[in-house]
């Protein structure tokens, strides 16, 4: 079982702290979703001018980069040019760091007809996918926003180059938002699932979101069932903790959550 975490969970940490803590807590890799206040890490010196040095620092700690998590929304028409440039910047980093994956979103469709939105996504995906493949990278559509339901993601995947695209199963969203059972998600998307985001929560009606993120195992997301489905079907990708501290500063600190995650996941690994 390969464990990673997104840097969304430690917005106050500098790069040295991220790398040192990842190794200390027993992670195998890091998924970069911003460092400090900069979400587009290719703009940072550590991932441009000093990228080779950063690569060596990560390798020296016994770690890898599991994914570069972008802000790209495939459905967007207005920002298509910007997103093409973002994909190329991350694809170049993939080539340098020996990383296969770039996370992308479907995005909100607003008042557009869903069929029209899907057509736009597929059209944009073709251009972006060609760029990613030039650098040996693969784009992963996350089960998120208006593309959470497995059926909607499946319709997209059936129309794109699956050498350029895979699925990032954020196990929280389909279950919490739609009540989608893990077996249902896997049946629809399993052949394309390359990467997994893990988080737990509890329903809390007084919370504006309707739920509260919590430590792994303290919520009611059926994580053991999800992991059993993945392992039974031969999944060998990363289990990546996505702790949204950047967006929800009230939740637990990373120095509590990260080592707890590793402990719980290693425990489940032994029990399976």
TrEMBL record:
Species: Paenibacillus gyeongsangnamensis
The keyword Membrane is assigned to this record: no
Keywords: Isomerase
Keyword Cytoplasm: no
Every Xylose isomerase-like TIM barrel domain range: 20-247
Any GO MF annotation of the entry: isomerase activity
Pfam families from the UniProt entry: AP_endonuc_2
Listed InterPro entries: IolE/XylAMocC-like (IPR050312), Xyl_isomerase-like_sf (IPR036237), Xyl_isomerase-like_TIM-brl (IPR013022)
Name by which UniProt lists this protein: Sugar phosphate isomerase/epimerase
